[in-house]
Amino acid sequence: MRVLTHNMLSSNIKGVTNGFPLGIEVEKVIEKQVDFNPDFLKNMFIKIEWKALVDASRSLGYDELPEEAPESSVIDSDDFLRKFHHALLELHLEEGALVCPQTGRKFPVNKGIPNMLLHEDEV
Amino acid sequence: MSSRPELKAPPEIFYDDVEARKYTSSSRIIEIQAKLSERALELLALPDDGVPRLLLDIGCGSGLSGETLSENGHQWIGLDISPSMLDIALEREAEGDLLLKDMGQGLGLRSGVIDGAISISAVQWLCNADKSSHEPRLRLKAFFGSLYRCLARGARAVFQVYPESLAQRELILSSAMRAGFAGGVVVDYPHSSKSRKEYLVLTCGPPSINTELPKAKLEDEESCSDDESSGDEENQTVCISDRHRPRKKQKTTKKGKGREWVLKKKEQMRRKGNAVPLDTKYTARKRKARF
Fold first, then answer.
1. Is residue B179 less than 8 Å (CB to CB) from chain A?
2. pLDDT per residue over B153-208, tens digit each?
3. Is residue A122, in this structure, part of any structural domain at all?
4. What are the backbone angles phi and psi of residue B136, rounded to the nearest 5°?
5. What is the number of structural domains in chain B?
6. Which family does it belong to (chain A) (predicted)?
7. CB spacing of B110 vs A12 below 8 angstroms
8. A117 with B77: Cβ contact below 8 A
9. What is the ipTM of this complex?
10. Looking at CA atoms only, how far is residue A28 from chain B in angstroms?
11. Which of A10, A104, B107, B155 lies at a CB distance of 3.0 to 4.6 Å from B151, suitable for a disulfide?
Protein backbone atom coordinates (compact mmCIF):
# COMPACT_ATOMS: atom_id res chain seq x y z
CA MET A 1 0.00 0.00 0.00
CA ARG A 2 1.31 3.38 -1.01
CA VAL A 3 1.34 6.52 1.10
CA LEU A 4 -1.08 7.98 -1.43
CA THR A 5 -3.71 5.46 -0.41
CA HIS A 6 -2.90 5.90 3.25
CA ASN A 7 -3.60 9.59 2.79
CA MET A 8 -7.07 8.86 1.44
CA LEU A 9 -8.02 6.13 3.85
CA SER A 10 -9.79 6.69 7.14
CA SER A 11 -11.31 4.39 9.69
CA ASN A 12 -15.06 4.03 9.33
CA ILE A 13 -15.86 2.06 12.44
CA LYS A 14 -19.26 2.89 13.84
CA GLY A 15 -19.08 5.74 16.34
CA VAL A 16 -15.65 6.96 15.26
CA THR A 17 -15.91 10.63 14.45
CA ASN A 18 -12.40 11.30 13.28
CA GLY A 19 -10.77 8.23 11.79
CA PHE A 20 -8.03 10.08 9.98
CA PRO A 21 -5.09 9.66 9.78
CA LEU A 22 -4.58 6.01 10.50
CA GLY A 23 -1.49 5.16 12.49
CA ILE A 24 1.11 2.94 10.87
CA GLU A 25 2.89 -0.04 12.37
CA VAL A 26 5.74 -1.04 10.15
CA GLU A 27 7.19 -4.50 9.73
CA LYS A 28 8.39 -4.33 6.17
CA VAL A 29 8.69 -1.53 3.63
CA ILE A 30 9.52 -1.94 -0.03
CA GLU A 31 10.17 0.55 -2.81
CA LYS A 32 8.93 0.30 -6.38
CA GLN A 33 9.89 2.50 -9.29
CA VAL A 34 6.99 4.49 -10.73
CA ASP A 35 6.99 6.82 -13.73
CA PHE A 36 7.39 10.45 -12.76
CA ASN A 37 4.46 12.63 -13.82
CA PRO A 38 4.54 16.26 -12.62
CA ASP A 39 1.00 17.00 -13.79
CA PHE A 40 -0.46 14.27 -11.65
CA LEU A 41 1.58 15.38 -8.64
CA LYS A 42 0.47 18.99 -8.93
CA ASN A 43 -3.10 17.82 -9.25
CA MET A 44 -2.70 15.61 -6.20
CA PHE A 45 -0.95 18.22 -4.10
CA ILE A 46 -4.12 20.18 -3.33
CA LYS A 47 -5.88 17.06 -2.17
CA ILE A 48 -3.15 15.73 0.10
CA GLU A 49 -3.24 16.21 3.85
CA TRP A 50 0.32 17.37 4.24
CA LYS A 51 0.81 16.50 7.88
CA ALA A 52 -0.44 12.96 7.43
CA LEU A 53 1.78 12.53 4.39
CA VAL A 54 4.89 13.68 6.25
CA ASP A 55 4.13 11.48 9.26
CA ALA A 56 3.41 8.46 7.10
CA SER A 57 6.53 8.82 5.00
CA ARG A 58 8.61 9.30 8.17
CA SER A 59 7.28 6.13 9.72
CA LEU A 60 8.19 4.34 6.50
CA GLY A 61 11.71 5.64 6.89
CA TYR A 62 11.79 8.59 4.47
CA ASP A 63 12.30 12.01 6.08
CA GLU A 64 13.24 14.34 3.24
CA LEU A 65 9.89 16.08 3.18
CA PRO A 66 9.57 19.48 4.91
CA GLU A 67 7.47 19.62 8.08
CA GLU A 68 5.29 22.48 6.86
CA ALA A 69 3.34 22.37 3.63
CA PRO A 70 5.45 24.23 1.08
CA GLU A 71 4.44 27.47 -0.61
CA SER A 72 2.87 27.21 -4.00
CA SER A 73 6.01 28.69 -5.59
CA VAL A 74 8.07 25.72 -4.41
CA ILE A 75 5.68 23.19 -5.87
CA ASP A 76 6.94 23.72 -9.39
CA SER A 77 10.54 22.97 -8.50
CA ASP A 78 11.73 19.67 -9.86
CA ASP A 79 13.63 18.81 -6.69
CA PHE A 80 10.54 19.09 -4.54
CA LEU A 81 8.36 17.18 -6.98
CA ARG A 82 10.86 14.32 -7.07
CA LYS A 83 10.74 13.98 -3.29
CA PHE A 84 6.98 14.31 -3.24
CA HIS A 85 6.74 11.68 -5.96
CA HIS A 86 8.97 9.26 -4.08
CA ALA A 87 7.07 9.65 -0.82
CA LEU A 88 3.65 9.48 -2.40
CA LEU A 89 3.98 6.70 -4.93
CA GLU A 90 7.15 4.69 -4.49
CA LEU A 91 7.07 3.76 -0.81
CA HIS A 92 4.99 0.69 -0.08
CA LEU A 93 3.96 -0.65 3.29
CA GLU A 94 4.27 -4.37 2.62
CA GLU A 95 3.72 -5.89 6.06
CA GLY A 96 2.44 -4.27 9.20
CA ALA A 97 -0.79 -2.73 10.39
CA LEU A 98 -2.92 0.38 10.25
CA VAL A 99 -4.26 1.65 13.55
CA CYS A 100 -7.51 3.53 14.05
CA PRO A 101 -6.56 6.79 15.84
CA GLN A 102 -9.62 6.80 18.05
CA THR A 103 -10.25 3.20 19.03
CA GLY A 104 -6.82 1.66 18.51
CA ARG A 105 -8.33 -1.11 16.40
CA LYS A 106 -5.67 -2.63 14.14
CA PHE A 107 -6.15 -3.35 10.45
CA PRO A 108 -3.47 -5.85 9.47
CA VAL A 109 -1.55 -5.32 6.23
CA ASN A 110 -0.44 -8.48 4.45
CA LYS A 111 1.44 -8.58 1.17
CA GLY A 112 0.68 -4.87 0.79
CA ILE A 113 -3.08 -5.32 1.11
CA PRO A 114 -4.71 -3.79 4.19
CA ASN A 115 -7.58 -5.81 5.55
CA MET A 116 -10.22 -3.16 6.17
CA LEU A 117 -13.10 -5.56 6.78
CA LEU A 118 -15.12 -4.57 9.82
CA HIS A 119 -16.66 -6.94 12.32
CA GLU A 120 -20.41 -7.01 12.53
CA ASP A 121 -20.52 -4.91 15.70
CA GLU A 122 -18.38 -2.22 14.12
CA VAL A 123 -20.72 -1.47 11.22
CA MET B 1 -25.48 -17.27 -18.49
CA SER B 2 -28.28 -19.12 -16.88
CA SER B 3 -26.72 -19.35 -13.46
CA ARG B 4 -25.92 -16.15 -11.66
CA PRO B 5 -22.98 -16.33 -9.26
CA GLU B 6 -24.84 -13.97 -6.92
CA LEU B 7 -27.34 -16.72 -6.24
CA LYS B 8 -24.75 -19.32 -5.31
CA ALA B 9 -22.74 -17.91 -2.43
CA PRO B 10 -21.53 -14.64 -0.94
CA PRO B 11 -18.73 -13.05 -3.01
CA GLU B 12 -15.93 -13.70 -0.52
CA ILE B 13 -16.85 -17.38 -0.53
CA PHE B 14 -17.84 -17.82 -4.17
CA TYR B 15 -14.59 -16.35 -5.44
CA ASP B 16 -12.28 -18.75 -3.66
CA ASP B 17 -8.82 -19.73 -4.95
CA VAL B 18 -10.22 -22.07 -7.60
CA GLU B 19 -12.91 -19.74 -8.90
CA ALA B 20 -10.58 -16.74 -8.84
CA ARG B 21 -8.01 -18.58 -10.93
CA LYS B 22 -10.67 -19.83 -13.33
CA TYR B 23 -12.04 -16.32 -13.70
CA THR B 24 -8.71 -14.81 -14.56
CA SER B 25 -7.38 -17.54 -16.81
CA SER B 26 -10.35 -17.37 -19.16
CA SER B 27 -9.35 -15.26 -22.15
CA ARG B 28 -13.01 -14.65 -22.91
CA ILE B 29 -13.65 -13.09 -19.52
CA ILE B 30 -10.48 -11.03 -19.77
CA GLU B 31 -11.60 -9.67 -23.12
CA ILE B 32 -15.11 -8.88 -21.91
CA GLN B 33 -13.78 -7.20 -18.78
CA ALA B 34 -11.38 -5.11 -20.81
CA LYS B 35 -14.19 -4.00 -23.13
CA LEU B 36 -16.51 -3.17 -20.25
CA SER B 37 -13.89 -1.16 -18.41
CA GLU B 38 -12.92 0.64 -21.60
CA ARG B 39 -16.52 1.68 -22.07
CA ALA B 40 -16.91 2.59 -18.40
CA LEU B 41 -13.86 4.82 -18.63
CA GLU B 42 -15.33 6.44 -21.71
CA LEU B 43 -18.58 7.11 -19.84
CA LEU B 44 -16.62 8.65 -16.96
CA ALA B 45 -15.86 11.47 -19.39
CA LEU B 46 -12.72 12.65 -17.64
CA PRO B 47 -11.35 15.93 -18.98
CA ASP B 48 -9.21 15.26 -22.01
CA ASP B 49 -6.00 16.94 -20.88
CA GLY B 50 -3.70 13.97 -20.46
CA VAL B 51 -3.38 14.45 -16.71
CA PRO B 52 -3.63 11.16 -14.81
CA ARG B 53 -6.45 11.02 -12.29
CA LEU B 54 -6.97 9.16 -9.07
CA LEU B 55 -9.73 6.68 -9.71
CA LEU B 56 -11.50 4.10 -7.64
CA ASP B 57 -12.19 0.59 -8.86
CA ILE B 58 -14.95 -0.91 -6.76
CA GLY B 59 -14.97 -4.68 -6.81
CA CYS B 60 -11.62 -4.69 -8.62
CA GLY B 61 -11.27 -8.47 -8.33
CA SER B 62 -8.12 -9.70 -9.97
CA GLY B 63 -7.32 -6.27 -11.36
CA LEU B 64 -8.56 -6.89 -14.90
CA SER B 65 -10.45 -3.61 -15.02
CA GLY B 66 -7.62 -1.81 -13.26
CA GLU B 67 -5.31 -2.86 -16.07
CA THR B 68 -7.38 -0.79 -18.46
CA LEU B 69 -7.10 2.18 -16.10
CA SER B 70 -3.33 1.78 -15.87
CA GLU B 71 -3.06 1.52 -19.65
CA ASN B 72 -4.79 4.87 -19.88
CA GLY B 73 -2.25 6.29 -17.46
CA HIS B 74 -4.44 6.71 -14.41
CA GLN B 75 -3.63 5.93 -10.80
CA TRP B 76 -6.21 3.80 -9.08
CA ILE B 77 -7.21 2.29 -5.79
CA GLY B 78 -9.04 -1.00 -6.00
CA LEU B 79 -11.14 -2.66 -3.37
CA ASP B 80 -12.64 -6.10 -3.23
CA ILE B 81 -14.04 -8.44 -0.63
CA SER B 82 -12.45 -11.64 -1.96
CA PRO B 83 -8.88 -12.24 -0.70
CA SER B 84 -8.33 -14.90 -3.39
CA MET B 85 -9.11 -12.46 -6.17
CA LEU B 86 -6.75 -9.91 -4.64
CA ASP B 87 -4.02 -12.54 -4.47
CA ILE B 88 -4.38 -13.06 -8.21
CA ALA B 89 -4.27 -9.30 -8.69
CA LEU B 90 -0.93 -9.29 -6.84
CA GLU B 91 0.31 -12.07 -9.09
CA ARG B 92 -0.70 -10.10 -12.15
CA GLU B 93 1.20 -7.15 -10.71
CA ALA B 94 -1.71 -4.76 -10.66
CA GLU B 95 -0.36 -1.23 -10.57
CA GLY B 96 -3.01 0.22 -8.31
CA ASP B 97 -3.26 -0.15 -4.57
CA LEU B 98 -5.49 -2.93 -3.34
CA LEU B 99 -7.72 -2.93 -0.29
CA LEU B 100 -9.62 -5.81 1.24
CA LYS B 101 -12.90 -4.13 1.94
CA ASP B 102 -16.63 -4.72 1.92
CA MET B 103 -18.30 -1.95 -0.07
CA GLY B 104 -21.52 -2.47 1.86
CA GLN B 105 -19.73 -1.30 5.00
CA GLY B 106 -18.95 2.08 3.48
CA LEU B 107 -15.75 3.07 1.73
CA GLY B 108 -14.02 4.97 4.53
CA LEU B 109 -12.23 7.44 2.30
CA ARG B 110 -11.54 11.09 2.92
CA SER B 111 -14.00 13.61 1.42
CA GLY B 112 -13.68 14.92 -2.09
CA VAL B 113 -10.41 13.28 -3.04
CA ILE B 114 -11.38 10.81 -5.76
CA ASP B 115 -11.70 11.95 -9.38
CA GLY B 116 -13.95 9.16 -10.54
CA ALA B 117 -15.08 5.64 -9.79
CA ILE B 118 -15.80 2.62 -11.92
CA SER B 119 -17.18 -0.73 -10.99
CA ILE B 120 -17.57 -3.68 -13.33
CA SER B 121 -20.25 -6.24 -12.51
CA ALA B 122 -20.09 -5.74 -8.78
CA VAL B 123 -22.83 -3.54 -7.38
CA GLN B 124 -25.59 -6.11 -7.87
CA TRP B 125 -23.90 -8.18 -5.14
CA LEU B 126 -25.04 -5.55 -2.66
CA CYS B 127 -28.65 -6.52 -3.23
CA ASN B 128 -28.11 -9.88 -1.54
CA ALA B 129 -28.38 -10.47 2.14
CA ASP B 130 -25.73 -13.09 2.81
CA LYS B 131 -25.49 -12.74 6.56
CA SER B 132 -28.12 -12.19 9.18
CA SER B 133 -26.72 -8.72 9.76
CA HIS B 134 -27.04 -7.79 6.10
CA GLU B 135 -29.84 -5.50 5.05
CA PRO B 136 -29.49 -4.67 1.32
CA ARG B 137 -31.14 -1.28 1.65
CA LEU B 138 -28.80 -0.20 4.45
CA ARG B 139 -25.74 -1.60 2.69
CA LEU B 140 -26.62 0.23 -0.52
CA LYS B 141 -27.17 3.37 1.50
CA ALA B 142 -23.81 3.06 3.26
CA PHE B 143 -22.09 2.39 -0.04
CA PHE B 144 -23.58 5.23 -2.07
CA GLY B 145 -23.39 7.66 0.85
CA SER B 146 -19.69 7.07 1.40
CA LEU B 147 -19.04 7.13 -2.34
CA TYR B 148 -20.78 10.48 -2.68
CA ARG B 149 -18.63 11.90 0.10
CA CYS B 150 -15.31 10.75 -1.28
CA LEU B 151 -15.90 11.86 -4.86
CA ALA B 152 -14.82 15.34 -5.93
CA ARG B 153 -17.56 17.70 -6.97
CA GLY B 154 -18.71 17.00 -10.52
CA ALA B 155 -16.90 13.66 -10.58
CA ARG B 156 -18.65 10.70 -12.09
CA ALA B 157 -19.12 7.13 -11.07
CA VAL B 158 -19.91 4.47 -13.66
CA PHE B 159 -21.15 1.06 -12.64
CA GLN B 160 -21.67 -1.74 -15.07
CA VAL B 161 -24.35 -3.88 -13.50
CA TYR B 162 -26.31 -7.00 -14.28
CA PRO B 163 -29.52 -6.37 -12.36
CA GLU B 164 -31.51 -9.50 -11.84
CA SER B 165 -34.87 -7.85 -12.20
CA LEU B 166 -36.58 -4.54 -12.67
CA ALA B 167 -37.06 -4.26 -8.93
CA GLN B 168 -33.36 -4.71 -8.31
CA ARG B 169 -32.42 -1.99 -10.77
CA GLU B 170 -34.99 0.24 -9.16
CA LEU B 171 -33.52 -0.47 -5.73
CA ILE B 172 -29.96 0.36 -6.80
CA LEU B 173 -30.98 3.48 -8.66
CA SER B 174 -33.19 4.85 -5.91
CA SER B 175 -30.44 4.30 -3.31
CA ALA B 176 -28.05 6.26 -5.52
CA MET B 177 -30.52 9.11 -5.97
CA ARG B 178 -31.20 9.23 -2.27
CA ALA B 179 -27.47 9.62 -1.61
CA GLY B 180 -27.55 12.75 -3.77
CA PHE B 181 -26.30 11.47 -7.11
CA ALA B 182 -27.77 12.64 -10.38
CA GLY B 183 -27.79 10.43 -13.43
CA GLY B 184 -29.38 7.31 -14.76
CA VAL B 185 -28.96 4.13 -16.69
CA VAL B 186 -27.28 3.91 -20.09
CA VAL B 187 -28.16 0.73 -21.95
CA ASP B 188 -25.80 -0.33 -24.73
CA TYR B 189 -27.23 -2.53 -27.47
CA PRO B 190 -30.73 -2.57 -25.95
CA HIS B 191 -32.18 -4.84 -28.63
CA SER B 192 -29.66 -7.60 -28.25
CA SER B 193 -30.12 -10.14 -25.54
CA LYS B 194 -26.43 -11.09 -25.43
CA SER B 195 -24.46 -7.91 -25.85
CA ARG B 196 -26.94 -5.76 -23.95
CA LYS B 197 -25.05 -3.99 -21.18
CA GLU B 198 -26.31 -1.64 -18.53
CA TYR B 199 -24.25 1.15 -17.08
CA LEU B 200 -25.31 3.23 -14.16
CA VAL B 201 -23.84 6.68 -14.78
CA LEU B 202 -23.92 8.85 -11.68
CA THR B 203 -22.70 12.38 -11.21
CA CYS B 204 -21.80 13.93 -7.93
CA GLY B 205 -23.69 17.16 -7.41
CA PRO B 206 -26.97 18.69 -8.52
CA PRO B 207 -28.27 18.10 -12.05
CA SER B 208 -26.80 20.41 -14.67
CA ILE B 209 -25.75 20.29 -18.31
CA ASN B 210 -22.75 18.22 -17.33
CA THR B 211 -24.91 15.59 -15.77
CA GLU B 212 -26.75 14.89 -18.99
CA LEU B 213 -26.64 11.19 -19.72
CA PRO B 214 -24.27 10.08 -22.46
CA LYS B 215 -25.66 8.36 -25.53
CA ALA B 216 -25.97 4.61 -25.47
CA LYS B 217 -24.39 2.53 -28.17
CA LEU B 218 -26.84 0.97 -30.57
CA GLU B 219 -26.32 -2.05 -32.76
CA ASP B 220 -23.64 -1.20 -35.26
CA GLU B 221 -22.92 -2.74 -38.66
CA GLU B 222 -20.86 -5.63 -37.43
CA SER B 223 -23.27 -6.92 -34.91
CA CYS B 224 -26.59 -6.18 -36.52
CA SER B 225 -29.23 -8.70 -35.74
CA ASP B 226 -32.15 -9.88 -37.81
CA ASP B 227 -34.88 -9.39 -35.27
CA GLU B 228 -37.70 -6.93 -35.91
CA SER B 229 -35.57 -4.04 -37.06
CA SER B 230 -35.43 -0.92 -34.99
CA GLY B 231 -37.14 0.96 -37.82
CA ASP B 232 -33.92 2.54 -38.99
CA GLU B 233 -33.81 2.82 -42.78
CA GLU B 234 -30.04 2.49 -43.08
CA ASN B 235 -29.87 -0.47 -40.82
CA GLN B 236 -32.09 -2.61 -42.98
CA THR B 237 -29.33 -4.20 -45.00
CA VAL B 238 -29.38 -7.96 -45.04
CA CYS B 239 -26.92 -9.49 -42.70
CA ILE B 240 -24.73 -12.11 -44.30
CA SER B 241 -23.34 -13.19 -41.01
CA ASP B 242 -26.65 -14.78 -40.12
CA ARG B 243 -26.28 -17.43 -42.83
CA HIS B 244 -23.22 -18.78 -41.16
CA ARG B 245 -24.79 -19.07 -37.82
CA PRO B 246 -23.69 -22.37 -36.31
CA ARG B 247 -26.38 -25.01 -36.41
CA LYS B 248 -27.52 -26.45 -33.19
CA LYS B 249 -25.31 -29.41 -32.64
CA GLN B 250 -26.96 -32.80 -32.60
CA LYS B 251 -26.82 -34.41 -29.28
CA THR B 252 -24.74 -37.53 -29.79
CA THR B 253 -22.12 -38.96 -27.59
CA LYS B 254 -18.86 -39.80 -29.30
CA LYS B 255 -19.13 -43.47 -28.65
CA GLY B 256 -22.51 -44.00 -30.29
CA LYS B 257 -25.21 -45.97 -28.64
CA GLY B 258 -23.17 -48.94 -27.51
CA ARG B 259 -23.54 -52.71 -27.41
CA GLU B 260 -25.97 -52.72 -24.51
CA TRP B 261 -28.46 -50.59 -26.34
CA VAL B 262 -28.26 -52.76 -29.46
CA LEU B 263 -28.79 -55.92 -27.43
CA LYS B 264 -31.80 -54.40 -25.72
CA LYS B 265 -33.36 -53.42 -29.03
CA LYS B 266 -32.74 -56.86 -30.50
CA GLU B 267 -34.39 -58.44 -27.51
CA GLN B 268 -37.41 -56.17 -27.99
CA MET B 269 -37.66 -57.18 -31.65
CA ARG B 270 -37.42 -60.86 -30.77
CA ARG B 271 -40.25 -60.52 -28.32
CA LYS B 272 -42.34 -58.99 -31.09
CA GLY B 273 -41.63 -62.11 -33.13
CA ASN B 274 -39.39 -60.55 -35.75
CA ALA B 275 -36.50 -62.42 -37.32
CA VAL B 276 -33.42 -61.16 -35.57
CA PRO B 277 -29.84 -62.33 -36.14
CA LEU B 278 -28.13 -64.08 -33.26
CA ASP B 279 -26.06 -62.18 -30.74
CA THR B 280 -22.41 -62.80 -31.45
CA LYS B 281 -19.12 -61.20 -30.59
CA TYR B 282 -19.56 -59.10 -33.74
CA THR B 283 -22.78 -57.54 -32.53
CA ALA B 284 -22.53 -53.74 -32.29
CA ARG B 285 -18.82 -53.86 -32.91
CA LYS B 286 -17.31 -50.90 -34.70
CA ARG B 287 -16.07 -51.30 -38.24
CA LYS B 288 -12.41 -50.85 -38.86
CA ALA B 289 -11.38 -47.54 -40.33
CA ARG B 290 -10.36 -49.00 -43.73
CA PHE B 291 -13.81 -50.33 -44.42
1. no
2. 888 999 998 888 888 888 999 999 999 888 888 888 888 877 888 899 998 876 55
3. no
4. -50, -40
5. 2
6. Belongs to the TRM112 family.
7. no
8. no
9. 0.91
10. 16
11. B155
